[in-house]
Design brief:
This protein is of the alpha/beta class and 314 residues long. The chain contains 14 helices and 10 strands. It has helices at residues 20-25, 28-40, 44-50, 53-56, 59-81, 96-103, 109-125, 142-151, 175-187, 211-219, 241-253, 258-265, 280-288, 300-311; strands spanning 2-8, 85-92, 132-138, 158-165, 168-174, 192-195, 229-231, 256-257, 271-274, 294-296. The strands form 2 sheets. It has a 5-stranded parallel beta sheet with strand order 7-2-1-9-10, with helices on both faces.
């Protein structure tokens, strides 16, 4: 039995047409989407397959679709080779943490998609449109990023939001602050400073306005004990169900330390699986730990490679 760790992608992994070839092979993909669509009264499969991309990329649409997509892929993995794997731990990048909680049996799919739909709506409206943003800074370390944020504080709030990999950190803040930070980061030696196409300054203190109403949403769902450890973005640790709710609230306005999540959760794992669309997580993990074999699963070719690796076939 293969010892595995599961990683679930966040926003940025979505694209129109995702999982189409897997769905042609495995009916459980569309069945999972049908269940999630019923939960929030929205045709998620049609939006995932047909777009338009502008609608798909709205955070309150992206979040339930990504959680459903990852849940669907996990359902296929369980169906095809569940008896061949022993899951040691899991982690999810931002909204991917809810996918991980579904896989661990903590949340039902219905509750997970309802939560992230609400989460997306709250995050989208926490800061007025156009007044906040995010940018990826390549080539600076965490200390240099902290200095950049401090140097531009007069222009506006700017904070480290995602520690994605060595030399790849995302910042979030006010629009004016982000613009100034990109300029200062390049002056400090950054290889690139790329504004991201997102609707707000996610995982920064500017998201605190979304926290209080989200507490009520978390109290309105059922929670079960996890079947395996889930490492939280806000703490890089596992927690009890009582603390888990607080970690999910904190995640809204706290940075995602993906580097720490991978380093902590992958101990003793023989294989890491990126559960869901795209290859973003696989790419980040290679930069974090070259010795960790992370296989993607979001298309038929890579899914077949994953099955072979799990079953010990060439």
């Amino acid at each position: 039995m293969k010892k595995v760790v599961l990683y679930f992608p966040g926003q940025g992994a979505q694209q129109v047409g995702m999982l189409a070839d897997l769905a042609a092979q495995y009916p459980i993909i569309e069945e999972t989407f049908a269940q999630a669509s019923e939960a929030i009264q929205q045709d998620l499969w049609s939006l995932a397959q047909n777009g338009p991309a502008e609608e798909l990329n709205l955070t309150y649409n992206t979040q339930p679709i990504l959680v459903t997509a990852s849940a669907a892929v996990w359902n296929v993995i369980q169906q095809e080779c569940g008896e061949n794997i022993s899951v040691l731990a899991a982690a999810g990048h931002s909204v991917g943490e809810y996918s991980a909680l579904y896989a661990a049996g903590v949340l039902s799919l219905t509750d997970a998609v309802r939560l992230v739909k609400k989460r997306g709506q709250l995050m989208d409206t926490a800061v007025p449109a156009g007044e906040g943003g995010m940018a990826a800074i390549l080539g600076l370390d965490s200390d240099q990023i902290a200095q950049v944020c401090a140097d531009v504080s007069a222009a506006g709030v700017v904070e480290a939001a995602n520690f994605n990999a060595t030399g790849q950190i995302v910042i979030a803040g006010t629009a004016a602050g982000i613009a100034q930070a990109c300029f200062v980061a390049k002056e400090a030696g950054a290889k690139r400073a790329l504004p991201l196409s997102v609707s707000g300054p996610f995982h920064s203190s500017l998201m605190r306005q979304a926290a209080e109403p989200f507490v009520a949403a978390l109290e309105g769902v059922g929670w079960s004990e996890p079947r395996f450890d889930v490492y939280h973005n806000a703490s890089n640790a596992v927690s009890s169900i009582v603390d888990m709710k607080q970690r999910l609230v904190e995640q809204l306005y706290s940075p995602v330390n993906w580097i720490g999540a991978v380093e902590t959760s992958s101990v003793n794992a023989e294989l890491a699986i990126e559960v869901g669309p795209g290859k973003v997580i696989s790419g980040l993990n290679k930069r974090i730990n070259k010795g960790l074999n992370t296989l993607s699963s979001g298309d038929s070719v890579n899914f077949e490679k994953l099955l072979n690796a799990i079953r010990g076939e060439d």
